[in-house]
Backbone:
């Protein structure tokens, strides 16, 4: 890391520290009732308490599980469907309008439908999360497959490569930057929908924890849950970026 | 079919052509790009095709590759009709940047052709190293195409084509985007590679000097629609030399003839 980058990094930490100090100040001055707003000290204590009693661990595991299953299902289905649509011009022409109609549909609108059909179950949560998270992945895959350099298909033809080899050795790697970017976007979507499903269906997870804490005016626990959700979003996103960086090392070489 | 070709060879005393265009016409989008083109390329021959831009020289090459099918007429390879591209025919594209896999290293790009040919993975590394050495890229196996110069990328594409062990090498203005020094170096390397492998070459270029320097025969196409306008045998001694060949009276005579032809074809 060079010196300017280090300075910026330090500055960003200073800003974050400033916000926390401001939060503590507001709490100490009781500008907002302590019933609703705990200071960072109390939120931290709640976090430590929750983890040492083991309650938060199981909630965190629940949320991570919902998120991971939904996201993985969305990734597999999104890449498969996106590859089929993206590699055929005819398919793109026929299917694209329907996709354009479905895509902007707020996922929250289909939650009641999913509940009516699947009940307040894990399966419902999985369906909703996967349905919401599939769009960025599928659309990115379609774009990635449609944008494969035609010259490479000619190279494949002159090498008499099989259809399967063309998909796995040419189309998929060529589309991988788009696909991974889509997967990163859906990671956030999956987290949001996990929390929503846990709140609506009472499934074990941080969403449920946050809801129960709020209902019983345990504001410190509520904030502990929110902080943990923020950390979860941040950590998964960073992990995804690292994976992207590794998988797309050849792109870094291009710059 | 092959035996018919053999018989023909026995009767005529000439080897049967490896690639044969028989009254080939190609229409694309209602336009006639190539009209009534007949042409035979002998095994081991180095044929150069020149012509003003838009004369269909690249199209003719794509027909030979099997990337296009003629509207009428026939393209034969080893006596058999070309219905689709085949591994025995390798194509060196002009735009090397687009024809290489950017996510594979130099070794990986060569490996693609070996994988397609079904070579067991244990045997690939040695062959890859050998091919990279052949095209003058030893020690660059781990580099990505984007880390290489244009000349190196084109060498890499040639290495991948050699990995196909082609009977025929089709080259579409392969050095068109390179600077003069790199270009001359690569011309000589291609000549020695071809001499060593015995492959048949069809080489498309807009550089008339390059065509004469490399070819056993040069064909000039006339535009709108593409058809043969001139055919010259190049009887210059081999191996060719960048200085003495280009100063040879025969070289200069052919050069004048070809320049006059191109000038006339542009009117």
Residues:
């Amino acid at each position: 890391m060079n010196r300017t980058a280090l300075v910026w990094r330090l500055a960003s930490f200073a800003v974050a520290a400033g916000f926390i100090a401001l939060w503590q100040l507001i709490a100490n001055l009781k500008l907002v009732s302590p019933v609703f707003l705990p200071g960072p000290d109390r939120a931290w204590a709640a976090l430590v308490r929750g983890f040492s009693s083991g309650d938060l661990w199981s909630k965190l595991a629940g949320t991570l599980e919902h998120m991971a299953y939904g996201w993985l299902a969305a990734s597999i289905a999104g890449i498969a469907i996106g590859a089929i649509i993206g590699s055929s011009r005819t398919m793109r022409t026929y299917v694209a309008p329907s996709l354009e109609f479905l895509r902007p549909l707020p996922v929250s609108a289909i939650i009641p439908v999913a509940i009516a059909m699947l009940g307040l179950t894990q399966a419902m949560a999985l369906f909703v999360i996967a349905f919401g998270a599939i769009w960025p992945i599928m659309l990115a895959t379609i774009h990635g497959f449609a944008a494969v350099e035609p010259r490479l298909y000619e190279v494949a033809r002159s090498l008499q490569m099989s259809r399967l080899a063309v998909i796995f050795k040419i189309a998929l790697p060529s589309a991988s930057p788009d696909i991974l970017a889509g997967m990163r976007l859906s990671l956030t979507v999956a987290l949001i929908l996990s929390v929503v499903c846990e709140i609506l269906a009472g499934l074990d997870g941080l969403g449920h924890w946050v809801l129960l804490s709020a209902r019983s005016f345990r504001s410190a626990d509520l904030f502990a849950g929110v902080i943990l959700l923020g950390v979860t979003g941040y950590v998964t996103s960073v992990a995804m970026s690292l994976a992207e960086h590794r998988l797309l090392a050849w792109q870094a070489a291009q710059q | 079919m092959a035996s018919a070709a053999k018989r023909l060879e026995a009767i005529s005393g000439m080897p049967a052509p490896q690639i044969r265009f028989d009254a080939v016409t190609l229409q694309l989008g209602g336009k006639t790009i190539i009209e009534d083109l007949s042409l035979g390329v002998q095994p081991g021959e180095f044929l150069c095709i020149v012509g003003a831009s838009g004369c269909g020289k690249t199209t003719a090459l794509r027909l030979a590759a099997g990337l296009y099918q003629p509207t009428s007429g026939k393209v034969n390879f080893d006596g058999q009709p070309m219905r689709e591209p085949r591994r025995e025919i390798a194509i060196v594209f002009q735009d090397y940047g687009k024809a290489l896999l950017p996510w594979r290293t130099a070794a990986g790009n060569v490996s693609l052709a070996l994988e397609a040919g079904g070579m067991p993975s244990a045997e690939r590394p040695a062959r890859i190293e050998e091919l990279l050495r052949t095209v003058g890229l030893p020690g660059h196996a781990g580099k990505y195409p984007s880390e290489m110069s244009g000349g190196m990328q084109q060498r890499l594409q040639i290495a991948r084509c050699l990995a196909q062990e082609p009977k025929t090498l089709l080259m579409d203005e392969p050095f068109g985007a390179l600077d003069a020094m790199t270009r001359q170096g690569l011309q000589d390397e291609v000549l020695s590679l071809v001499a060593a492998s015995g492959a048949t070459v069809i080489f498309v270029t807009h550089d008339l000097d390059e065509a004469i320097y490399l070819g056993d025969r040069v064909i000039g196409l006339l535009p709108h629609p593409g058809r043969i306008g001139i055919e010259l045998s190049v009887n210059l001694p081999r191996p060719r030399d960048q200085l003495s060949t280009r100063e040879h009276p025969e070289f200069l005579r052919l050069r004048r003839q070809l320049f006059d032809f191109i000038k006339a074809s542009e009117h």
In short: Chain A has two domains: 1-31, 37-254.
